[in-house]
């Protein structure tokens, strides 16, 4: 008989077997040497034994040391690495432990969900990079549509945020969420006493013990990090703080030069980061000021830890190049350059007489994903000359593939309508209430938000609503 853990949480052999059958067989084995292929193919024979071990782990509030061990494999970032910073550490961990983590995670999510930050866009269902960009831009565009308004955006940079989580502080946060003490103890044991070693070809280093941070290459780490940072939340009519994992942004909509709330929020967040031992990198933290007023004075910088934060004309946020004019030429240049290098590989494949079907299969994940990345954020507001550049590039790719490919307008239209429907159908989405207030009382149509400026009219929400209303009632 498998012991009943004091947490009240236990797993059945059926649950364990389902998770074993979902393992990716192509992944490398962890330090325990057990391949996911073996675990998946022998799931029926192993599920009962692993169920007993998992429940025993919860009962004792302890995790076997081998399951917590990480093997760090340095992978070169460049062709000829010369310094340690030229390598990216890839962590290999036990797949048995990952199975247990997924089972624990499915139990933890509903417990912690009421306490999570609604403006955390990472690791959450039905939201992602697109939604983070859309939300930031919607707040900026709608504010700048009013007279005498400036938008200040602070992009914070943390030094190894995941590696600085303190288990004792996380424990206190979980206890405040009224989580069972035995389960909290199990999580604390999960984060402490973790052996790590480095493997480079046939050489293996001596292990070092880690007692801080969320381990890389594990299932629970992203969830625990968002939980660790969930107790700092802020949202008002003029200021908000949003997160994508450890990428944190404060947006202040400053009217008539009143910056007190924005500066107080920055100061509060810096103080909270210090109290939670998260290390802000002030040198890499940047601010962008969007100001379309004709008569304006140079913005005064914000000071953090005795250093003035640099005000920059543009910033790369979650893979999208934002600038202080809210134009997309800089982003288009970056996309075009990256896509051109992908087009070179596409042409090389054709030179090897690769069939059209295979070329199309290469185009979609390699080239199209680059061109249309976060297109819902910028697709409606892009200038005609920039759109033409990208469409010519797509046309060139189509001539290589040997078939017609969807152009920018077609892809943007479909994705914007799909994203709007997702927002309408997801009550937890940060923009759901904004869209819900625009529902018509007489039909399925949505009311257009008031837009006095063309830049707001060409942003995501007004453009997506216009496209949605143009659909037939049966398509809405």
TrEMBL record:
Decide whether keyword Transmembrane helix is in the record.
yes
Q: Which UniProt keywords apply?
A: Membrane, Transmembrane, Transmembrane helix
Determine the domain of life of the protein's source.
Answer: Eukaryota
Specify whether Chaperone is a keyword of the entry.
Answer: no
Which parts of the chain span the membrane according to its record?
Answer: 361-382
Citing just one GO molecular function, the answer is:
methyltransferase activity
For this protein, the record's PROSITE patterns field holds:
RT_POL (PS50878)
Coiled-coil segments: none
Q: Residue ranges of the Reverse transcriptase domain?
A: 56-322
**Family annotation (PANTHER family):** ENDO_EXONUCLEASE_PHOSPHATASE DOMAIN-CONTAINING PROTEIN, REVERSE TRANSCRIPTASE DOMAIN-CONTAINING PROTEIN
Q: What is the protein named?
A: Reverse transcriptase domain-containing protein
Origin species, per record, is: Takifugu flavidus
């Amino acid at each position: 008989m498998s012991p009943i853990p004091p947490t009240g949480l236990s797993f059945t052999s059926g649950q364990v077997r389902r998770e074993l059958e979902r393992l990716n067989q192509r992944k490398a084995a962890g330090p325990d040497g057990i391949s996911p292929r073996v675990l998946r193919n022998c799931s029926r024979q192993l599920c009962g034994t692993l169920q007993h071990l998992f429940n025993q782990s919860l009962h004792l509030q302890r995790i076997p040391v081998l399951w917590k061990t990480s093997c760090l494999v340095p992978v070169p970032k460049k062709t000829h690495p010369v310094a340690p910073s030229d390598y990216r550490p890839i962590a290999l961990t036990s797949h048995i432990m990952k199975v247990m983590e997924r089972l624990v995670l499915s139990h933890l999510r509903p417990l912690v969900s009421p306490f999570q930050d609604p403006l955390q866009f990472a690791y959450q269902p039905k939201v992602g990079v697109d939604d983070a960009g859309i939300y930031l831009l919607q707040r900026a565009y709608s504010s700048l549509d009013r007279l005498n308004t400036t938008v200040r955006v602070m992009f914070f940079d943390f030094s190894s945020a995941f590696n600085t989580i303190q288990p004792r502080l996380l424990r206190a946060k979980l206890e405040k969420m009224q989580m069972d003490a035995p389960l909290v103890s199990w999580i604390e044991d999960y984060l402490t006493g973790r052996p790590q070693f480095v493997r480079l070809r046939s050489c293996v280093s001596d292990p070092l013990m880690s007692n801080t941070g969320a381990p890389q290459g594990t299932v629970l780490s992203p969830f625990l990090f968002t939980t660790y940072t969930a107790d700092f939340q802020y949202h008002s009519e003029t200021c908000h703080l949003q997160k994508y994992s450890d990428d944190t942004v404060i947006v202040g909509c400053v009217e008539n030069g009143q910056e007190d709330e924005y500066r107080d929020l920055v100061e509060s967040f810096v103080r909270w980061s210090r109290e939670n031992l998260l290390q802000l990198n002030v040198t890499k933290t940047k601010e962008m000021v969007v100001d379309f007023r004709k008569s304006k004075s140079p913005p005064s910088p914000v000071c953090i830890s005795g250093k003035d934060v640099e005000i920059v004309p543009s910033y790369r946020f979650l893979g999208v190049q934002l600038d202080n004019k809210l134009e997309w030429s800089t982003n288009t240049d970056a996309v075009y350059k990256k896509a051109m290098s992908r087009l070179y590989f596409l042409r090389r494949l054709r030179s090897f007489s690769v069939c059209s079907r295979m070329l199309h299969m290469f185009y979609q994940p390699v080239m199209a994903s680059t061109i249309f990345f976060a297109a819902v954020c910028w697709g409606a507001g892009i200038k005609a000359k920039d759109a033409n550049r990208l469409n010519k590039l797509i046309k060139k790719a189509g001539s290589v593939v040997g078939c017609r490919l969807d152009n920018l307008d077609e892809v943007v239209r479909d994705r914007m309508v799909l994203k709007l429907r997702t927002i309408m159908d997801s009550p937890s989405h940060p923009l759901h209430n904004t869209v819900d207030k625009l529902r018509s009382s007489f039909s399925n149509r949505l009311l257009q938000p008031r837009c006095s400026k063309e830049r707001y009219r060409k942003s995501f929400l007004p453009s997506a609503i216009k496209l949605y209303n143009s659909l037939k009632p049966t398509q809405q």
